Amino acid sequence: MVNVMPGVVFEAERPRETAEFWAALLEGELVGGDHDSGGYDGGRDRGGRDAGDDGRGSHVTGGYDGGGLRVRLPDGPTVRVVGATAGKPAKNRIHLDLASDGDGDGVARRGTQRAIVDRAIRLGAARIDIGQYAGRVPVPWQVLADPAGNEFCVLEPRGEYAASGVLAAVVIESPDPHRLAEFWSGATRWPIVRTDPELVSLRAPGGRGPWLELLSADPCPPVTPRCRLELTVPPGAPDTAGADTTATGDAATGDAATGNTATGNTAAGTAAVAPGAFAVEADRLCLLGATRRGAGRLVDPDGIVIDLAPGG
To answer: Which residue pairs, CB below 8 angstroms and at least 24 apart, start in 53-58?
Structure first.
C-alpha cells in the first residue's frame, strides 16, 4: 500500500457547477461525465443544461467511480462532487485551505491572497462570516464559500506551505485533534510533523503536496455525509493472508457489510481491485479505530464519513 492523502467529497445541488468551480480555482483536471478529457465547457452539457439536471427538474450525478465529477490535483487529493442527498444544515467539519504568495515573492506561482480571493469570487464564490471577525484582532485569512455553500479559506502567505501547491491543506475540525491525528496518521501512513495545543499537522513523507491538519473546535460542527472523506484502494492491491472474512464478508459473495465483491464494486465505484482488497483495508481501518457503516463506507473515531473507493 502507498501513502495516501484522503480525498474530499462534496455534495451539491448542481454538481457540475461546483466541480468546475474547484477545477478552475485549484487548477486541476476535471474528469467524469462529459469531462473525461479534462476539458472545460463553461458548466453546460451538450444539451445546454447543467450536468446535474436530468431535464425533469431533478439532479443526478455523472458516472465516474461511483458518480459525480472529480477534480484531480497533481500533488494533492482528489475533490469529488456528487449530487446532494440533503440540505446543508450547518458549517462543514471539513474544509480546504488555499495557499497564497506574497507580493515580493520571486516566483508567484499561486498569486497573492487578494488575487486568489478576487478570482474565486469571479468563479462563483461568496464571502461569508463564520465568526472570524468576532475577536479583538482580525484574522489574516479570508473565508469564502463555493457555489454549493462549502466553506474554504484563502490563507495569508505562510512559509510552511511553500511546497504545497495551490491547495495548502485539508482541515478536519475535531473536539480532540490529538486523538484523531493518531487515527489519520495510521490511515494515511503519514507522520505527525507538528503538534500544537489547537492544531496537529500530518505531512507526506516526501515533504511535498498539501498537509492534512486536525483543528480543535468547541463546539464542533455536526457530522453529515454532505462533506466527507475518501480513501482509495489501489488497483491490483493484493489481499492479505489471514484477513477476517467472517467479520468483513467474503470477496466472492459481495457481503453488503463492506461493499466488497470479486470485481471491486463498492458504493464508491468499480475498478480492477484484487478480491478481498476492500475487506482488508476496512479491517485495517477498523483496527485503527474506524467503524463500518455499510457498503464501502466507514466512519472515523469522530464519526466523519469515509468512503472506500477504487484507486487509479
So the answer is: 53/14
Q: What is the DSSP letter of 269?
A: B
CA neighbor of 279 nearest in space, from 230, 304, 246: 246
* Span 150-196, pLDDT tens digits: 999 999 999 999 888 899 999 999 999 999 999 999 999 999 999 99
Closest CA to 198 of 232, 171, 162: 171
d(CA 259, CA 296): 5
Tell me the per-residue pLDDT of 285-310, one tens digit each, with 9 for 90 and over.
Answer: 999 999 999 888 999 999 999 999 88
pLDDT in tens, 211-238: 999 999 988 888 988 999 999 887 765 5
Cβ density class 42-71: b for 16+ within 10 Å, e for less:
ebebeeeebbbbeeeeebbbbebbbbbbbb
Count of H-run helices and E-run strands, the chain = 5, 16
Sheet containing 227-233, strands listed edge to edge, beginning at the edge strand earlier in sequence: 29-31, 69-72, 79-83, 7-12, 227-233, 305-310, 297-299, 291-292
The three cell numbers of residue 269 are 465505484
| 106, three cell numbers | 520571486
305 three-class SS: strand
- CA 65, CA 35: separation in Å to the nearest integer? 13
